[in-house]
């Protein structure tokens, strides 16, 4: 699991993102979604690791670290929208961090388990829809 975390962090830190702010944020969040074979394998490791933490208490510290790292990344995403003055004033930052984190985890799990029903296009459209709902009207 630590290798997966390192790979994702390295990829996000070294990637050059292009596009509108929402396109860049969508692309950044896609680093932790199963949008290609590499990320699908990483998400399968995450899914298996998460299930194992339910029965193996020795994994608790690493599990908490992975969770906190994800929370930090999501907080940066929401903070970016706020810094760019795109975030609706009525969005509660802390609550939204939890909500977006849960949405991303849920979409990853649904796409892994039910790729025909929750396709790549469904996943990306849902993510974009949610991010747009957080932003001020253009």
TrEMBL record:
A Pfam family hit: TetR_C_6
Domain of life: Bacteria
Gene3D superfamilies: Tetracycline Repressor, domain 2 (1.10.357.10)
Sequence ranges assigned to domain BetI-type transcriptional repressor C-terminal in this UniProt record: 23-135
SUPFAM superfamilies in alphabetical order: Tetracyclin repressor-like, C-terminal domain (SSF48498)
InterPro entries listed in its UniProt record: BetI_C, Tet_transcr_reg_TetR-rel_C_sf
Protein name in the entry: TetR family transcriptional regulator C-terminal domain-containing protein
